[in-house]
Write a structure and sequence with these properties.
Layout (H helix, E strand, L loop, with lengths): L29 H14 L1 H13 L3 H6 L11 E4 L8 E4 L2 H14 L7 E2 L2 E2 L2 H15 L5 H15 L3 H8 L4 H9 L4 H4 L14
Antiparallel strand pairs: 1-2, 3-4
Helix pairs in contact: 1-2, 2-6, 6-7, 7-8
Pfam families: Phage_integrase
GO molecular function: DNA binding
Keywords: DNA recombination
Length: 205
């Protein structure tokens, strides 16, 4: 039986973006996300921006580390991923309010080539891992990048976005990969529904 509790909208926004004020599901509650971001913002603004960026974009670790200001358009509301590793090249749009935050950060702190720079240019993998561990301790939940990508995938699916759009946003090379990540986190009842991955096709953008 199709899960009627999803409350799919009649119309979807024309551009897929992730808003932290509406993001949340059985993997990570909205209150947990907002609590984490509020605590980080008061403690370390740089760490706050990195975690919020991951929550809003679902970037992989290599993508985050190599991201440069030159990859953004002039309004900083979208950027092009080229250093992809296993993932596909793609454009990602940001929520307008968060785009303003990033623009002000880039103007005030002039981070140079990289959006999130390290001491000698490129931010180290170990630094990101430490930031994620700190975030995990704050809400007593393990936070890592694959987990955040799954939170985003499930949230977008439950809001009614078609599988193809979720695949493109996260950079999966096949729909099968996107479907697999979603299937890991839905109910057994939905697993048996033959319409599970076709119900969103009629959602108008």
């Amino acid at each position: 039986m199709l899960n009627t509790n999803l409350n799919l909208p009649t119309f979807l926004p024309p551009i897929l973006t992730v808003d932290v004020f509406t993001l949340g599901n059985r993997l990570l509650a909205q209150t947990e996300i907002l609590n984490l971001l509020n605590r980080l913002r008061n403690k370390n603004h740089f760490h706050y921006l990195i975690i919020k960026f991951l929550v809003c974009t679902g970037l992989s670790l290599p993508e985050l580390i190599h991201l440069k200001i030159a990859d953004f358009n002039k309004e900083m509301d979208r950027f092009y991923i080229t250093n992809v590793g296993r993932l596909r090249k793609r454009h990602i749009f940001l929520d307008p309010k968060f785009a303003v935050e990033l623009y002000r950060y880039s103007c005030e702190f002039s981070p140079g080539d990289y959006l999130f720079p390290g001491r000698d240019g490129e931010l180290r993998t170990r630094t990101i891992q430490k930031i994620l561990k700190t975030a995990s301790r704050m809400i007593s939940r393990e936070i890592h990048i694959p987990f955040l990508r799954d939170v985003i995938a499930l949230d977008l699916f439950q809001k009614g976005f078609p599988l193809r759009e979720i695949q493109e946003f996260l950079g999966h090379r096949t729909k099968r990969s996107t479907r697999h990540r979603i299937m890991l986190h839905i109910t057994e009842m939905d697993h048996r529904d033959p319409r599970l991955f076709t119900r969103n096709r009629n959602q108008a953008a």
